[in-house]
Design brief:
- The complex is a heterodimer.
- By secondary structure, chain A is an alpha/beta fold.
- Chain A has a domain of 136 residues: P-loop containing nucleotide triphosphate hydrolases (Rossmann fold).
- Chain A contains 10 helices and 10 strands.
- In chain A, strands 6-7-8-3-9-10 form a 6-stranded mixed β-sheet, sandwiched between helices. Chain A has a 4-stranded antiparallel β-sheet with strand order 2-1-4-5, covered by helices on one side.
- In chain A, strand 1 and strand 2 form a beta hairpin.
- In chain A, helix 3 packs parallel to helix 6.
- The longest helix of chain A is centred in the last third of the chain and has 16 residues.
- Chain A is globular, with a radius of gyration of 17 Å.
- The two termini of chain A are 34 Å apart.
- By secondary structure, chain B is mainly alpha-helical.
- Chain B has a single domain, classed as Orthogonal Bundle (ABC transporter involved in vitamin B12 uptake, BtuC).
- Chain B has a two-stranded antiparallel ribbon. A two-stranded antiparallel ribbon of chain B has the order 2-3.
- In chain B, helix 1 packs antiparallel against helix 8, helix 1 packs across helix 9 and helix 2 runs parallel beside helix 4.
- Chain B is globular.
- The chains are: A alpha/beta, B mainly alpha.
- The interface between A and B is medium-sized, with 27 and 18 residues.
- The structure holds adenosine-5'-triphosphate and magnesium ion.
- Magnesium ion (MG) binds next to helix 1 of chain A.
Amino acid sequence: MLRVDNLNVYYGMIHAIKDISLEVNKGEIVSLVGANGAGKTTTLHAISGLLKPRSGSATYLQHNLLTTPAHKIVECGLSHVPEGRRVFSQMTVMENLEMGAYISKDKARNQKILANVFEHFPRLEERKRQLAGTLSGGEQQMLAIGRAMMANPDMLLLDEPSMGLSPLLVKEIFKIIKELNDDGITILLVEQNAKQALSIAHRGYVLETGKIVLSGNAAELLENDAVKKAYLGG
Amino acid sequence: MEFLFNLISGISLGSIYAIIALGYTMVYGIAKMLNFAHGDVIMVGAYICFFATMRFGMPPLAGVLLSMVVCTMLGIIIERLAYKPLRQAPALAVLITAIGMSYFLQNSAQLLWTSSPKVFQSVVGTINGQTGLKLFDGALSVSYVTIVTIIVCVIIMLALVTFVNKTKTGKAMRAVSEDKGAAQLMGINVNTTISLTFAIGSALAAVAGVLLCSAYPTLVPTTGAMPGIKAFTAAVFGGIGSIPGALIGGILLGIIEIFAKAYITTQLSDAIVFAVLIVVLLVKPTGLLGKKVSEKV
Ligand SMILES: Nc1ncnc2c1ncn2[C@@H]1O[C@H](COP(=O)(O)OP(=O)(O)OP(=O)(O)O)[C@@H](O)[C@H]1O
Ligand SMILES: [Mg+2]
């Protein structure tokens, strides 16, 4: 469904992504794990058009992502929940969700998706008139995911959805990610929290300083000694 | 009575500043740049209306509309040609370009229309041969231009606030002003949004130019410069980026200016205006209604 081949991304002189290739098949949860600064966010930004890679290719279904303008990519059915949530803090929860449905003119369908979002995140419905900037971190993360769902995507890119959340909320968020996948949404999940991320994934990739060093079945990666040592605390 | 007269004059002048300040503040909010050529778009707007009505005999309202159309296009072209290529450039480069654009417009106007002053005829007509209202048995006379200016300003404010808060496009504008990247992920075209902002700001500049020259009829290529700077001051005063801030900043600035002229000294009125600005910014660096922006890391 999503295919990245030999991607190279630079920040000026810094070679942040070195020849990365990865693939996500329809219906999968694929986790991309790695330490701080490994290049996880950079990879996602390149996929969703916020950054221009120097070379390589990225395709989603039949779309060439590297020639598609960033604001057109969501129309292909690929939504990105960015690192740090990036909700529109001066806008209400409801307005944020409306922005999520910006590309859709079908009011009835939007209403249905909204109901679905509120079902997953009842907290958002309670706070729909509140400014997003006044939500707690966990609520903002729910809003960021809900906002992406409003575009009715077939695939979600999630960038560290567990960042800064309490263990209980992390569990909750991962449960919801699993549910979304059960609903048929394909997921590329970026996480530092390798254990959690791999435990809900079908497959995984391990990124280290811009290179993919390991990949494979998620359960096997969880058992891999190198992964255990580096990311799972021994 | 004199106090009331000055207050109304101040509000009216302030309304013009407010309309101009809206252009500064919206462009700043979306494109994060100070468009110093904005004042000169006002001047272009006034010239267009002048030629349309005086030379080509168009009715005043048609002249205003034509002037708005021309300025809208001018605003979009300026952004496309001069600012868009600098989207990733340092703020200083953009600022210098904007100042350059300002001189370019002034010099072009000089070349096209010479620097000899044109006498602008008010687009606000007379009613029963009167140019204004006489109130309190003639003790207070308020010109129609003054009244129309205030009404137009109120209408523009209400329309803009509604647009930005209630329409999808307006909300998308606010989204872009907060976070361009996240807005793009929603499918919002940032370039189109920026163009739209310049278009609205420039159309308002045309209105401001016409109102300004209706009240102060001498039209020269530098007509827009000083009101432009004062409106910029008003925008900062009210809190740059804030639409209600532009209104309040503009009106207060107009009142302060007129009162300084009436009760202190005409020569120093501008100095007083800027002194007030400095004091406000010392006390509240984000302006009256400015929000504290937390820098993103
Ligand atoms: N705008 C930028 N300019 C220069 N270098 C950058 C920029 N953004 C990221 N980098 C560098 O690129 C590398 C990869 O960064 P990236 O944000 O992709 O890492 P990450 O894996 O998402 O890390 P984290 O888990 O901390 O979010 C880092 O070395 C970082 O310093
Ligand atoms: Mg990251």
